[in-house]
């Protein structure tokens, strides 16, 4: 049976472009709705995760939005329907959306979010689920939920945001629902870099290609170690995981190739094995 690849999978609400070195650009494609999240987009993000998990040709994913927005959060039509939605149906939809964000966070390859515009609610959760965030100076960020009479804790934000910006800044943003600029987001560590709009994708691609030049197994184990050890019960347990991953990585073909290339003074050619 032929394995599905990201470059050959059809999407309605996502655009996928394959670049060199295994870099794939995924664009949220509902520009007239500022790429707001609805069931169809959640379903396609879930499918995206399934394909990336199974496609060894994908080394790095760059996530961005079509038009002037990155992702405005939940579709307004969905929000206005909430009062008439049963508790059971709402919980089912809530759980499904949250599972997609969690799955996106667990992708085995690095994800670079190129945040091009307004980023709110579930859109912020999606950006936080990326490993690195680069922002256009036209972007802004807001948790938003609390301003809609809902809890500020939604689709993983209460777990993701404090780990990126710290508990103090996360509390301020989540309790007030205030909007912050890209420059403020950089100051608190929400994004790593702010650039002019025409420099956003080139900056993201530069980082993506840098990541793609590294052994896929080394990246996978590093990402896994970071995710697990941020909540490690002790330094000893964190080091135990590191020790095992280092021994595992040292037995890979990529580690042998890295040593060969280093001694030869030439770029390594990694295969992911």
What does this structure look like?
It is a single chain. By secondary structure, this protein is α/β, with parallel strands linked by helices. The protein folds into two domains: 6-212, 2-enoyl-CoA Hydratase, Chain A, domain 1 (Alpha-Beta Complex); 216-264, Lyase 2-enoyl-coa Hydratase, Chain  A, domain 2 (Orthogonal Bundle). Helices cover 47% and strands 14% of the residues. It is built from eleven helices and nine strands. The chain has helices at residues 39-54, 76-80, 87-105, 122-128, 157-165, 167-176, 182-187, 200-212, 216-229, 235-250, 253-264; strands spanning 14-18, 23-28, 60-65, 111-115, 119-120, 132-136, 140-142, 180-181, 193-195. A six-stranded mixed β-sheet has the order 1-2-3-4-6-9, sandwiched between helices. It has a three-stranded mixed β-sheet with strand order 5-7-8. α1 (39-54) runs parallel beside α3 (87-105), α4 (122-128) packs across α5 and α9 packs antiparallel against α10 (235-250). The two termini are 22 Å apart. The model has no long low-confidence stretch (mean pLDDT 92).
